[in-house]
Amino acid sequence: MSLPQKRFFRQRAHSNPLADHSLEFPSCPSKMDWSEHFPLFFTKLGERFNDEENSMKTKKKVEFADVGCGYGGLLGSFCEVQVTVPRADINFKVGLADTFPEVLSLGLELRAKVADYAHKKILALREQNKSTGKYQNISIVRANAMKYLPYFFEKGQLKKIFFLFPDPHFKKSKHKWRIISPHLLSDYAYFLAVGGLLYTVTDVAELYEWEIKHLSEHPLFMRISNESLKGDATVDLILNSSEESKKVTRQGGDNKMGEIYYVSLFLFALVVF
Amino acid sequence: MLVAELNSALILTSGDTLLLPASNQLIKIPPPDVPPNLTKGQLQVLNKQDRTITSVTTSRDGKHIAVSTENKQIVVFDAAFRIVSNFIVNRAPSKILFTKSGDMLVADRTGDVYLYKREKTEPVLLLGHLSMILDMALSECEKYIITCDRDEKIRVSRFPNTYNIASFCLGHDEFVIRVVVIKGVLVSASGDGTVRVWDYVKGAQLCSIDTNLCVKDEKLLEEFSGVMDREKVDVTALPITDMQVVCDGDCLVVAVSLYSCRDVQLYRVELEGYNWTVLNSVEPVDALHKFYLSKNLYIFDSFKVSVYNLSNSALINSDKQMDEFYEKHKNVLKISENEITVLYKRKFDNVQEYLERKKLRLESGK
Q: Which residues are paired to A202 by β-bridges?
């Protein structure tokens, strides 16, 4: 099974998040049939694994969510070889699938073609790595994260949630389409476990200011200092593996990383009432 | 037409008028108090617009009644119907509520909920849905605010710290049009034709009633799905148009009206075990305008007001004063054409088309 070719899956960068798309989603998280996405970890809804070892697997839950995952670069990449990275000190790995082999990661993407590509890519990666069983821990759904996250995730289920290079929606009238907004942050806080992390990266200064403002103002999020970012393997992963960051790196030259990206990391903190 | 109750007296609304049968009075909603710095153009727009009442609510202490109108106006009256305040909000309100302390919650059609404090400060934005909010309720303890939307969602947020979401009550397959908190549970009604009872703090469903099972005439659904089919909307049930709940001892009594059905269905739900039974439904003589459930069940049709006893669905000798009033002002009482069909989603599916096109392209070997 060969990897899908991106040129057959191009789509414009925007999709109206408020429109009534015809999407499939479960009526509530417990009705979600995860076996279609992670066949190694879940049996069909209502069925059970027979042996002890496997029944432990069914207790697994998706813990990482990549919202607006695009072509799925963060989840898992094509290349197994070491990629040339501008900063030499990074121990580079490709994608969440490799870096967190024990964690189930799910990408969510609204654009139909792009979601289709990412899905085919994951299937091909699994097929190619059959012997090692790699890439079984990543999957993607076509979903509108702004409206339908509660149908996929339970309260406190997620350990990490990613918003990488989201649509900046420059016009003021389109600000309500932005994926980071005061309203939606309350939703994200609901899905995150206490101590869970929200990652956001953008190469648009204006959006960065907006995100920092709303995340800082939200009572349930606390900013993590730039100092602490250095030790986080996920940050390096984000900067190097996601498709968008590769594009930005290609276009913007290699040594400008610090100037191009605005990374921010927020910790979800529980406020006691 | 809407119905509310203030100190056991019914208040009806029709268009831009409040009708008070007890005092034989009609009150027209006055134009809004316009801030002085408005431009002439804005003024014209405000004055022209229709002041049809969209929501009516009473305070728990029985001292105030408030209405919201189509032209974004909110008018608060005291118990003697003197105007206490009359102001304009930014977006068309769909539902208003008083809190215990007399502040006002305003949900609007763009999906936001604002808190208007009694001291006239700027309103506080409490929460937002990405969809039209169709109803809103406060828990009895006022620690939770519950909102439901044109999607299938019910959101339970802490109050007043609404950034902290307690749960989502998920299970409805269509828009949720009513939420009522009573006796520590949440009762919801939806376009999918079901009434559901929830433990709203946990977001767990306790029971579900399919009201369509009690519809004897199968043609009604056929007809409705035929109409909706032309708009490319798939419907599998007659939608609930209104639901009201009262407590009767250790049971809840739920009254429901369905689209194009003439009768008002009644259900009894036990608060222990959540078993439910169907009570006799009540059918008006003429087309149903509205029903109102409190100690008794009031049915408003195009001719008269009928009052029914809840425990045995028997007709009570009707209220003479009410009848006369209703007869006299029948011409004022317009049925508001609150078209429920617009709440259904006209889904557009571009995926099927895309897959077919791609298949063709791959086959042609490009």
A: A262
